[in-house]
Design a protein that fits this description.
single chain, alpha+beta, nine-stranded mixed beta sheet, about 30% helix, binds adenosine-5'-triphosphate, binds magnesium ion
Length: about 500
Protein backbone atom coordinates (compact mmCIF):
# COMPACT_ATOMS: atom_id res chain seq x y z
CA UNK A 1 0.00 0.00 0.00
CA UNK A 2 1.32 3.43 -0.92
CA UNK A 3 1.49 6.27 1.58
CA UNK A 4 -0.26 9.65 1.22
CA UNK A 5 2.23 12.42 0.77
CA UNK A 6 1.35 15.92 1.86
CA UNK A 7 3.50 17.70 -0.72
CA UNK A 8 3.12 17.31 -4.50
CA UNK A 9 6.56 17.58 -6.10
CA UNK A 10 7.04 19.67 -9.28
CA UNK A 11 9.83 20.00 -11.80
CA UNK A 12 9.45 23.34 -13.54
CA UNK A 13 6.37 25.07 -15.02
CA UNK A 14 4.74 25.65 -18.41
CA UNK A 15 2.77 28.79 -19.29
CA UNK A 16 -0.78 27.80 -20.30
CA UNK A 17 -2.79 30.92 -21.17
CA UNK A 18 -6.49 30.10 -21.50
CA UNK A 19 -7.72 29.35 -24.99
CA UNK A 20 -9.67 32.40 -26.15
CA UNK A 21 -12.61 30.13 -26.89
CA UNK A 22 -13.10 29.92 -23.13
CA UNK A 23 -14.74 33.34 -23.49
CA UNK A 24 -17.64 31.55 -25.15
CA UNK A 25 -18.51 29.92 -21.89
CA UNK A 26 -18.71 33.13 -19.89
CA UNK A 27 -22.02 34.06 -18.37
CA UNK A 28 -23.95 31.01 -19.41
CA UNK A 29 -26.42 31.50 -16.57
CA UNK A 30 -27.45 34.92 -17.83
CA UNK A 31 -30.75 35.82 -19.36
CA UNK A 32 -31.15 39.06 -21.29
CA UNK A 33 -32.59 40.67 -18.17
CA UNK A 34 -29.83 39.59 -15.78
CA UNK A 35 -27.18 40.50 -18.37
CA UNK A 36 -28.56 44.00 -18.76
CA UNK A 37 -28.82 44.33 -14.98
CA UNK A 38 -25.09 43.65 -14.87
CA UNK A 39 -24.43 46.56 -17.23
CA UNK A 40 -26.76 48.76 -15.20
CA UNK A 41 -24.68 47.84 -12.12
CA UNK A 42 -21.63 49.31 -13.81
CA UNK A 43 -23.49 52.50 -14.74
CA UNK A 44 -24.65 52.87 -11.15
CA UNK A 45 -21.12 52.27 -9.85
CA UNK A 46 -20.00 55.04 -12.21
CA UNK A 47 -22.43 57.40 -10.50
CA UNK A 48 -24.85 57.68 -13.44
CA UNK A 49 -28.17 59.38 -12.76
CA UNK A 50 -29.63 58.41 -16.13
CA UNK A 51 -29.35 55.10 -17.90
CA UNK A 52 -30.82 54.25 -21.28
CA UNK A 53 -31.31 50.73 -22.62
CA UNK A 54 -31.92 50.92 -26.36
CA UNK A 55 -32.84 48.22 -28.86
CA UNK A 56 -31.87 48.98 -32.44
CA UNK A 57 -34.20 47.93 -35.21
CA UNK A 58 -33.51 47.87 -38.94
CA UNK A 59 -36.71 47.10 -40.81
CA UNK A 60 -38.06 43.94 -39.26
CA UNK A 61 -34.70 42.97 -37.77
CA UNK A 62 -33.38 43.74 -34.36
CA UNK A 63 -29.71 44.37 -34.95
CA UNK A 64 -28.25 45.56 -31.70
CA UNK A 65 -28.53 46.92 -28.25
CA UNK A 66 -27.06 49.85 -26.33
CA UNK A 67 -26.69 50.73 -22.69
CA UNK A 68 -25.86 54.41 -22.35
CA UNK A 69 -25.17 56.32 -19.16
CA UNK A 70 -24.07 59.74 -17.97
CA UNK A 71 -21.72 58.38 -15.33
CA UNK A 72 -18.10 59.14 -14.64
CA UNK A 73 -16.82 57.36 -17.74
CA UNK A 74 -13.56 55.49 -18.11
CA UNK A 75 -10.21 57.28 -18.29
CA UNK A 76 -8.06 56.34 -21.30
CA UNK A 77 -5.48 54.60 -19.10
CA UNK A 78 -8.20 52.52 -17.42
CA UNK A 79 -10.05 51.23 -20.47
CA UNK A 80 -7.83 48.21 -21.03
CA UNK A 81 -8.26 47.05 -17.45
CA UNK A 82 -12.01 47.53 -17.84
CA UNK A 83 -12.06 45.26 -20.90
CA UNK A 84 -9.95 42.58 -19.25
CA UNK A 85 -11.72 39.45 -18.12
CA UNK A 86 -11.28 39.31 -14.35
CA UNK A 87 -9.75 42.80 -14.32
CA UNK A 88 -10.73 43.72 -10.79
CA UNK A 89 -10.21 47.21 -9.49
CA UNK A 90 -10.27 48.69 -6.01
CA UNK A 91 -13.88 48.60 -4.85
CA UNK A 92 -15.47 50.88 -2.28
CA UNK A 93 -17.99 49.64 0.26
CA UNK A 94 -20.72 51.07 -1.96
CA UNK A 95 -19.70 49.40 -5.22
CA UNK A 96 -21.83 46.75 -6.84
CA UNK A 97 -18.82 45.47 -8.82
CA UNK A 98 -16.85 42.63 -7.30
CA UNK A 99 -15.47 40.13 -9.79
CA UNK A 100 -14.15 42.20 -12.69
CA UNK A 101 -16.19 39.99 -14.97
CA UNK A 102 -19.68 41.45 -15.29
CA UNK A 103 -19.33 43.55 -18.41
CA UNK A 104 -17.66 40.80 -20.41
CA UNK A 105 -19.66 37.84 -19.13
CA UNK A 106 -23.00 39.62 -19.47
CA UNK A 107 -22.19 40.85 -22.96
CA UNK A 108 -20.86 37.57 -24.35
CA UNK A 109 -23.84 35.71 -22.96
CA UNK A 110 -26.01 37.76 -25.32
CA UNK A 111 -23.85 39.10 -28.15
CA UNK A 112 -20.83 38.15 -30.23
CA UNK A 113 -19.47 41.67 -30.26
CA UNK A 114 -18.99 44.07 -27.35
CA UNK A 115 -17.95 47.66 -27.92
CA UNK A 116 -17.29 50.08 -25.07
CA UNK A 117 -17.03 53.80 -25.80
CA UNK A 118 -16.38 56.11 -22.93
CA UNK A 119 -15.34 59.58 -21.94
CA UNK A 120 -14.19 60.70 -18.52
CA UNK A 121 -14.44 64.42 -17.72
CA UNK A 122 -11.40 66.24 -19.11
CA UNK A 123 -10.27 63.29 -21.20
CA UNK A 124 -10.61 62.22 -24.80
CA UNK A 125 -13.19 59.65 -25.76
CA UNK A 126 -11.81 56.11 -26.01
CA UNK A 127 -13.18 52.90 -27.43
CA UNK A 128 -12.48 49.19 -27.43
CA UNK A 129 -14.15 46.23 -29.06
CA UNK A 130 -14.08 42.55 -28.23
CA UNK A 131 -15.34 40.05 -30.76
CA UNK A 132 -16.05 36.54 -29.64
CA UNK A 133 -15.42 34.78 -32.90
CA UNK A 134 -12.19 36.56 -33.63
CA UNK A 135 -10.34 34.01 -31.53
CA UNK A 136 -7.77 33.69 -34.30
CA UNK A 137 -6.38 36.88 -32.82
CA UNK A 138 -5.94 35.32 -29.41
CA UNK A 139 -6.95 37.82 -26.78
CA UNK A 140 -6.44 40.84 -29.02
CA UNK A 141 -8.98 43.55 -28.26
CA UNK A 142 -9.70 46.04 -31.05
CA UNK A 143 -8.94 49.72 -30.53
CA UNK A 144 -11.79 51.90 -31.78
CA UNK A 145 -10.74 55.34 -33.10
CA UNK A 146 -11.43 58.22 -30.72
CA UNK A 147 -13.44 60.02 -33.40
CA UNK A 148 -15.91 57.15 -33.64
CA UNK A 149 -16.07 56.84 -29.86
CA UNK A 150 -16.83 60.56 -29.58
CA UNK A 151 -19.46 60.36 -32.32
CA UNK A 152 -21.26 57.49 -30.59
CA UNK A 153 -21.10 59.25 -27.23
CA UNK A 154 -22.40 62.46 -28.76
CA UNK A 155 -25.38 60.95 -30.51
CA UNK A 156 -28.62 62.47 -29.34
CA UNK A 157 -29.44 60.00 -26.58
CA UNK A 158 -31.75 62.49 -24.90
CA UNK A 159 -30.00 62.10 -21.58
CA UNK A 160 -29.20 65.14 -19.41
CA UNK A 161 -26.04 66.84 -20.69
CA UNK A 162 -22.90 65.55 -19.06
CA UNK A 163 -19.17 65.94 -19.56
CA UNK A 164 -18.72 62.22 -19.13
CA UNK A 165 -20.48 59.01 -19.92
CA UNK A 166 -20.26 55.53 -21.33
CA UNK A 167 -21.86 53.73 -24.26
CA UNK A 168 -21.87 49.94 -24.23
CA UNK A 169 -22.88 48.55 -27.57
CA UNK A 170 -23.78 44.97 -28.43
CA UNK A 171 -23.78 43.77 -32.04
CA UNK A 172 -24.66 40.33 -33.35
CA UNK A 173 -27.01 39.85 -30.45
CA UNK A 174 -28.31 36.31 -30.19
CA UNK A 175 -31.82 35.49 -29.11
CA UNK A 176 -33.29 38.42 -31.02
CA UNK A 177 -35.92 37.29 -33.53
CA UNK A 178 -34.66 37.12 -37.10
CA UNK A 179 -38.14 37.04 -38.50
CA UNK A 180 -39.49 38.98 -41.44
CA UNK A 181 -42.84 39.22 -39.74
CA UNK A 182 -43.16 42.68 -38.19
CA UNK A 183 -45.84 41.36 -35.80
CA UNK A 184 -43.41 38.92 -34.30
CA UNK A 185 -40.79 41.58 -33.82
CA UNK A 186 -43.31 43.93 -32.19
CA UNK A 187 -44.53 41.19 -29.94
CA UNK A 188 -40.99 40.25 -28.96
CA UNK A 189 -40.16 43.85 -28.17
CA UNK A 190 -43.21 44.54 -26.08
CA UNK A 191 -42.76 41.33 -24.13
CA UNK A 192 -39.04 41.91 -23.66
CA UNK A 193 -39.46 45.52 -22.58
CA UNK A 194 -42.09 44.55 -20.09
CA UNK A 195 -39.90 41.74 -18.68
CA UNK A 196 -37.02 44.16 -18.44
CA UNK A 197 -39.11 46.74 -16.66
CA UNK A 198 -40.06 44.03 -14.20
CA UNK A 199 -36.57 42.70 -13.65
CA UNK A 200 -34.75 46.04 -13.47
CA UNK A 201 -37.55 47.63 -11.45
CA UNK A 202 -37.28 44.85 -8.90
CA UNK A 203 -33.49 44.50 -8.84
CA UNK A 204 -32.80 48.21 -8.45
CA UNK A 205 -35.93 49.32 -6.61
CA UNK A 206 -34.05 50.72 -3.62
CA UNK A 207 -31.55 52.51 -5.85
CA UNK A 208 -34.21 53.98 -8.17
CA UNK A 209 -36.40 55.11 -5.30
CA UNK A 210 -33.61 56.06 -2.91
CA UNK A 211 -31.10 57.78 -5.18
CA UNK A 212 -33.42 58.95 -7.91
CA UNK A 213 -31.59 57.04 -10.64
CA UNK A 214 -33.67 57.01 -13.83
CA UNK A 215 -33.62 53.97 -16.11
CA UNK A 216 -35.48 54.11 -19.42
CA UNK A 217 -35.89 51.66 -22.29
CA UNK A 218 -36.62 52.52 -25.90
CA UNK A 219 -36.35 51.23 -29.45
CA UNK A 220 -34.56 53.06 -32.24
CA UNK A 221 -35.57 52.35 -35.80
CA UNK A 222 -32.49 53.28 -37.81
CA UNK A 223 -34.66 55.00 -40.41
CA UNK A 224 -37.36 56.50 -38.20
CA UNK A 225 -35.41 57.38 -35.06
CA UNK A 226 -36.19 56.53 -31.44
CA UNK A 227 -39.69 55.67 -30.24
CA UNK A 228 -41.44 56.19 -26.91
CA UNK A 229 -39.45 55.76 -23.72
CA UNK A 230 -40.52 53.22 -21.19
CA UNK A 231 -39.60 54.23 -17.70
CA UNK A 232 -38.45 51.55 -15.27
CA UNK A 233 -40.50 52.12 -12.12
CA UNK A 234 -39.28 50.73 -8.79
CA UNK A 235 -41.00 47.53 -7.68
CA UNK A 236 -40.60 47.14 -3.95
CA UNK A 237 -41.60 43.63 -2.88
CA UNK A 238 -42.25 44.93 0.63
CA UNK A 239 -44.55 47.82 -0.31
CA UNK A 240 -47.83 46.57 1.10
CA UNK A 241 -50.59 49.06 1.77
CA UNK A 242 -51.17 48.36 5.46
CA UNK A 243 -49.42 46.21 8.02
CA UNK A 244 -50.68 43.39 10.19
CA UNK A 245 -50.37 44.37 13.84
CA UNK A 246 -46.96 43.43 15.20
CA UNK A 247 -45.29 42.89 11.81
CA UNK A 248 -42.68 43.14 10.36
CA UNK A 249 -40.34 41.78 13.02
CA UNK A 250 -36.55 41.60 13.00
CA UNK A 251 -35.22 38.17 13.90
CA UNK A 252 -31.56 38.46 14.89
CA UNK A 253 -28.72 36.11 15.46
CA UNK A 254 -25.05 36.69 16.05
CA UNK A 255 -22.83 34.88 13.55
CA UNK A 256 -19.05 35.25 13.85
CA UNK A 257 -19.24 38.76 15.32
CA UNK A 258 -21.79 39.91 12.75
CA UNK A 259 -25.50 40.41 13.24
CA UNK A 260 -27.59 38.48 10.78
CA UNK A 261 -30.96 40.20 10.64
CA UNK A 262 -34.00 38.63 9.04
CA UNK A 263 -36.66 41.26 8.56
CA UNK A 264 -39.80 39.14 8.46
CA UNK A 265 -42.73 40.70 6.62
CA UNK A 266 -46.26 39.44 6.14
CA UNK A 267 -48.37 40.92 3.39
CA UNK A 268 -51.83 41.49 4.86
CA UNK A 269 -53.49 39.80 1.88
CA UNK A 270 -52.95 39.10 -1.80
CA UNK A 271 -52.92 42.12 -4.01
CA UNK A 272 -53.03 43.11 -7.66
CA UNK A 273 -50.17 45.55 -7.39
CA UNK A 274 -46.95 44.80 -9.27
CA UNK A 275 -45.23 44.87 -5.88
CA UNK A 276 -47.12 41.78 -4.84
CA UNK A 277 -47.40 40.09 -8.21
CA UNK A 278 -43.73 40.11 -9.02
CA UNK A 279 -42.19 38.80 -12.24
CA UNK A 280 -42.52 35.04 -12.04
CA UNK A 281 -45.63 35.24 -9.88
CA UNK A 282 -46.15 35.92 -6.20
CA UNK A 283 -46.25 32.28 -5.22
CA UNK A 284 -42.72 31.67 -6.48
CA UNK A 285 -41.56 34.85 -4.78
CA UNK A 286 -42.28 33.85 -1.20
CA UNK A 287 -39.24 33.52 1.03
CA UNK A 288 -35.91 35.24 1.27
CA UNK A 289 -34.80 38.44 -0.44
CA UNK A 290 -31.08 39.07 -0.32
CA UNK A 291 -29.78 42.60 -0.81
CA UNK A 292 -26.18 43.63 -1.25
CA UNK A 293 -25.43 47.35 -1.27
CA UNK A 294 -29.09 48.10 -1.91
CA UNK A 295 -29.21 45.93 -5.01
CA UNK A 296 -31.55 42.97 -4.84
CA UNK A 297 -29.58 39.83 -5.68
CA UNK A 298 -32.12 37.16 -5.10
CA UNK A 299 -35.90 37.33 -4.84
CA UNK A 300 -37.69 34.48 -3.15
CA UNK A 301 -37.15 30.86 -2.18
CA UNK A 302 -36.45 29.49 1.28
CA UNK A 303 -32.86 28.25 0.83
CA UNK A 304 -33.55 25.03 2.65
CA UNK A 305 -35.10 26.54 5.77
CA UNK A 306 -38.59 25.57 4.65
CA UNK A 307 -40.39 24.19 1.61
CA UNK A 308 -42.39 26.49 -0.67
CA UNK A 309 -46.09 26.36 0.05
CA UNK A 310 -49.06 28.17 -1.46
CA UNK A 311 -50.11 29.19 2.02
CA UNK A 312 -46.80 30.91 2.66
CA UNK A 313 -47.09 33.35 -0.22
CA UNK A 314 -47.63 36.32 2.06
CA UNK A 315 -44.25 35.68 3.71
CA UNK A 316 -41.24 37.67 2.51
CA UNK A 317 -38.02 38.16 4.44
CA UNK A 318 -35.37 40.73 3.57
CA UNK A 319 -31.73 40.10 4.45
CA UNK A 320 -28.92 42.58 3.88
CA UNK A 321 -25.65 40.80 3.35
CA UNK A 322 -23.44 43.87 3.27
CA UNK A 323 -21.39 42.78 6.25
CA UNK A 324 -21.16 39.43 4.46
CA UNK A 325 -21.73 37.73 7.80
CA UNK A 326 -18.42 35.99 7.58
CA UNK A 327 -18.69 34.12 4.36
CA UNK A 328 -22.04 32.58 5.15
CA UNK A 329 -23.32 33.62 1.73
CA UNK A 330 -21.96 33.40 -1.79
CA UNK A 331 -23.38 35.25 -4.77
CA UNK A 332 -22.98 33.87 -8.26
CA UNK A 333 -21.00 35.96 -10.77
CA UNK A 334 -24.24 36.77 -12.60
CA UNK A 335 -25.46 38.33 -9.33
CA UNK A 336 -28.80 36.63 -9.74
CA UNK A 337 -28.55 34.16 -6.86
CA UNK A 338 -27.21 33.94 -3.39
CA UNK A 339 -26.39 30.56 -1.94
CA UNK A 340 -26.48 30.23 1.76
CA UNK A 341 -23.82 28.07 3.34
CA UNK A 342 -24.45 25.01 5.48
CA UNK A 343 -24.56 27.00 8.73
CA UNK A 344 -27.38 29.22 7.52
CA UNK A 345 -30.26 26.93 8.50
CA UNK A 346 -29.04 26.55 12.06
CA UNK A 347 -28.41 30.30 12.34
CA UNK A 348 -31.96 30.98 11.20
CA UNK A 349 -33.32 28.46 13.68
CA UNK A 350 -31.47 30.28 16.45
CA UNK A 351 -32.66 33.76 15.41
CA UNK A 352 -35.05 35.57 17.74
CA UNK A 353 -37.02 38.80 17.70
CA UNK A 354 -36.94 41.03 20.79
CA UNK A 355 -40.25 39.49 21.88
CA UNK A 356 -38.87 35.96 21.43
CA UNK A 357 -40.54 35.24 18.05
CA UNK A 358 -38.80 32.45 16.11
CA UNK A 359 -38.82 31.58 12.43
CA UNK A 360 -41.40 28.87 13.11
CA UNK A 361 -43.68 31.40 14.80
CA UNK A 362 -43.27 33.67 11.81
CA UNK A 363 -44.13 30.99 9.25
CA UNK A 364 -47.20 30.03 11.26
CA UNK A 365 -48.33 33.64 11.45
CA UNK A 366 -47.86 34.05 7.69
CA UNK A 367 -49.90 30.93 7.01
CA UNK A 368 -52.64 32.06 9.37
CA UNK A 369 -52.76 35.42 7.59
CA UNK A 370 -53.16 33.65 4.25
CA UNK A 371 -55.97 31.41 5.44
CA UNK A 372 -57.72 34.30 7.06
CA UNK A 373 -57.45 36.61 4.04
CA UNK A 374 -58.53 33.92 1.63
CA UNK A 375 -61.59 32.94 3.47
CA UNK A 376 -62.84 36.36 2.56
CA UNK A 377 -62.10 36.44 -1.16
CA UNK A 378 -61.56 33.83 -3.88
CA UNK A 379 -63.27 31.05 -1.97
CA UNK A 380 -66.59 32.78 -2.50
CA UNK A 381 -66.07 33.23 -6.24
CA UNK A 382 -67.61 30.92 -8.81
CA UNK A 383 -65.13 28.72 -10.70
CA UNK A 384 -64.62 29.33 -14.44
CA UNK A 385 -63.09 27.47 -17.40
CA UNK A 386 -59.34 28.00 -17.73
CA UNK A 387 -58.49 30.53 -20.47
CA UNK A 388 -57.00 28.78 -23.54
CA UNK A 389 -55.85 30.04 -26.95
CA UNK A 390 -56.38 33.60 -28.08
CA UNK A 391 -55.86 35.32 -24.75
CA UNK A 392 -53.16 37.83 -24.01
CA UNK A 393 -50.84 36.20 -21.42
CA UNK A 394 -51.53 38.96 -18.94
CA UNK A 395 -55.27 38.42 -19.22
CA UNK A 396 -54.84 34.67 -18.72
CA UNK A 397 -52.69 35.24 -15.69
CA UNK A 398 -55.19 37.64 -14.20
CA UNK A 399 -58.06 35.21 -14.68
CA UNK A 400 -56.04 32.44 -13.08
CA UNK A 401 -55.14 34.66 -10.17
CA UNK A 402 -58.58 36.00 -9.52
CA UNK A 403 -60.81 33.02 -10.03
CA UNK A 404 -60.87 29.37 -9.05
CA UNK A 405 -60.62 27.21 -12.20
CA UNK A 406 -62.76 24.26 -13.21
CA UNK A 407 -60.87 21.05 -13.99
CA UNK A 408 -62.02 21.07 -17.61
CA UNK A 409 -60.58 21.73 -21.07
CA UNK A 410 -59.76 25.43 -21.55
CA UNK A 411 -61.90 27.85 -23.51
CA UNK A 412 -60.37 29.37 -26.66
CA UNK A 413 -61.42 32.59 -28.34
CA UNK A 414 -60.19 32.65 -31.93
CA UNK A 415 -60.76 34.20 -35.33
CA UNK A 416 -61.92 32.35 -38.45
CA UNK A 417 -63.63 33.02 -41.74
CA UNK A 418 -67.42 32.69 -41.52
CA UNK A 419 -69.87 32.08 -44.38
CA UNK A 420 -72.40 34.35 -42.67
CA UNK A 421 -72.16 37.86 -41.22
CA UNK A 422 -72.71 36.63 -37.65
CA UNK A 423 -70.11 37.85 -35.18
CA UNK A 424 -69.92 34.72 -32.98
CA UNK A 425 -69.97 30.97 -33.31
CA UNK A 426 -70.29 28.83 -30.20
CA UNK A 427 -68.34 25.64 -30.90
CA UNK A 428 -68.76 23.46 -27.88
CA UNK A 429 -66.87 20.47 -29.36
CA UNK A 430 -63.75 22.51 -29.97
CA UNK A 431 -64.28 24.47 -26.73
CA UNK A 432 -63.92 27.54 -28.87
CA UNK A 433 -65.76 30.77 -29.24
CA UNK A 434 -65.09 31.69 -32.88
CA UNK A 435 -65.07 35.32 -33.95
CA UNK A 436 -65.83 36.34 -37.51
CA UNK A 437 -62.61 37.48 -39.15
CA UNK A 438 -64.59 39.84 -41.41
CA UNK A 439 -64.76 42.30 -38.49
CA UNK A 440 -61.21 41.95 -37.29
CA UNK A 441 -59.61 44.82 -39.21
CA UNK A 442 -62.35 47.20 -38.13
CA UNK A 443 -62.10 46.19 -34.48
CA UNK A 444 -58.34 46.57 -34.60
CA UNK A 445 -58.88 50.02 -36.07
CA UNK A 446 -56.10 49.47 -38.57
CA UNK A 447 -53.54 48.24 -36.00
CA UNK A 448 -51.82 44.94 -36.66
CA UNK A 449 -53.41 41.89 -35.09
CA UNK A 450 -51.92 38.71 -33.68
CA UNK A 451 -53.13 35.52 -32.06
CA UNK A 452 -53.62 37.29 -28.75
CA UNK A 453 -55.03 40.53 -30.12
CA UNK A 454 -57.88 42.61 -28.72
CA UNK A 455 -57.43 41.63 -25.08
CA UNK A 456 -60.26 43.88 -23.84
CA UNK A 457 -62.80 42.43 -26.24
CA UNK A 458 -61.76 38.87 -25.48
CA UNK A 459 -61.73 39.40 -21.73
CA UNK A 460 -65.26 40.82 -21.90
CA UNK A 461 -66.44 37.89 -24.02
CA UNK A 462 -64.83 35.44 -21.62
CA UNK A 463 -66.68 36.99 -18.70
CA UNK A 464 -69.93 37.20 -20.62
CA UNK A 465 -70.20 33.87 -22.40
CA UNK A 466 -67.72 31.63 -20.59
CA UNK A 467 -70.24 29.68 -18.59
CA UNK A 468 -72.24 28.45 -21.59
CA UNK A 469 -69.24 26.27 -22.45
CA UNK A 470 -69.24 24.59 -19.07
CA UNK A 471 -70.84 21.20 -18.53
CA UNK A 472 -72.26 18.91 -21.20
CA UNK A 473 -75.20 20.74 -22.80
CA UNK A 474 -76.51 24.15 -23.72
CA UNK A 475 -79.65 24.63 -21.61
CA UNK A 476 -82.70 26.52 -22.90
CA UNK A 477 -81.59 29.55 -20.94
CA UNK A 478 -78.11 29.34 -22.50
CA UNK A 479 -79.60 29.14 -25.98
CA UNK A 480 -81.66 32.24 -25.41
CA UNK A 481 -78.65 34.13 -24.06
CA UNK A 482 -76.58 33.06 -27.05
CA UNK A 483 -79.26 34.50 -29.37
CA UNK A 484 -79.28 37.78 -27.51
CA UNK A 485 -75.46 38.09 -27.58
CA UNK A 486 -75.33 37.14 -31.24
CA UNK A 487 -77.91 39.74 -32.30
CA UNK A 488 -76.53 42.59 -30.26
CA UNK A 489 -72.84 41.92 -30.86
CA UNK A 490 -73.33 41.36 -34.60
CA UNK A 491 -75.08 44.74 -34.83
CA UNK A 492 -72.21 46.30 -32.86
CA UNK A 493 -69.56 44.66 -35.07
CA UNK A 494 -71.33 45.84 -38.24
CA UNK A 495 -71.42 49.36 -36.84
CA UNK A 496 -67.67 49.20 -36.12
CA UNK A 497 -67.04 47.94 -39.64
CA UNK A 498 -69.00 50.65 -41.41
CA UNK A 499 -67.41 53.40 -39.30
CA UNK A 500 -63.99 51.95 -40.07
CA UNK A 501 -64.67 51.67 -43.80
CA UNK A 502 -66.03 55.21 -43.96
CA UNK A 503 -62.76 56.46 -42.45
CA UNK A 504 -60.36 54.53 -44.65
N1 LIG B 1 -20.71 52.14 -17.56
C1 LIG B 1 -19.48 52.24 -17.04
N2 LIG B 1 -19.00 53.44 -16.63
C2 LIG B 1 -17.76 53.53 -16.10
N3 LIG B 1 -16.91 52.49 -15.94
C3 LIG B 1 -17.33 51.28 -16.33
C4 LIG B 1 -18.62 51.09 -16.91
N4 LIG B 1 -18.76 49.78 -17.21
C5 LIG B 1 -17.60 49.19 -16.83
N5 LIG B 1 -16.74 50.07 -16.30
C6 LIG B 1 -15.40 49.80 -15.78
O1 LIG B 1 -15.05 48.53 -16.22
C7 LIG B 1 -14.68 47.70 -15.15
C8 LIG B 1 -15.03 46.26 -15.45
O2 LIG B 1 -16.43 46.07 -15.38
P1 LIG B 1 -17.00 44.64 -15.05
O3 LIG B 1 -18.46 44.73 -14.97
O4 LIG B 1 -16.44 43.68 -16.03
O5 LIG B 1 -16.38 44.30 -13.64
P2 LIG B 1 -16.74 44.91 -12.22
O6 LIG B 1 -17.93 45.79 -12.32
O7 LIG B 1 -15.48 45.55 -11.71
O8 LIG B 1 -17.03 43.62 -11.37
P3 LIG B 1 -18.28 42.59 -11.58
O9 LIG B 1 -17.73 41.40 -12.29
O10 LIG B 1 -18.68 42.26 -10.20
O11 LIG B 1 -19.31 43.29 -12.36
C9 LIG B 1 -15.41 48.28 -13.96
O12 LIG B 1 -14.76 47.97 -12.76
C10 LIG B 1 -15.36 49.77 -14.28
O13 LIG B 1 -14.14 50.30 -13.87
MG1 LIG C 1 -19.74 45.09 -13.17
Amino acid sequence: MSVWSQEVPTEGAVELPPDPRAMNALGRNHSLETALADLVDNSIDAGATDILVRFVQRGTRLVGLYVVDNGRGIEPERIDAAMTVGGQRRYTSEDLGHFGLGLKAASFSQAASLTVLSRAAGHKAVGRRWQLNASRHGFACDIVPGTFAAAELDRNWQLPASASGTVVRWDQVNGLPSSDDPDQVDEFLSRTISHLQGHLGLTFHRIIAGRGVRIVIDVEDIHLGAGVRHRVAPIDPFAYPDTLPGWPKDLKVRVNDNDLVLRCHIWPRRSNTPEYRLPGGAEARQGLYFYRRSRLLHAGGWEGIHAADTRLQLARVSIDIDGDTAGMFAMNPEKSRVSAGPRFASAVAAARADDGTTITDYLQAAEAAWINANRRTTARRKAVLPPGKGFHPKVSREIRNELPLLHEEPLNIQWKRFTTDAFLEFDRNARTLWLNRAYRQALLGGRRGGGNDLPVLKALLFLLVGNVFEGAHFGARDKDNMDIWQEILTAAAKAEKSTFEARS
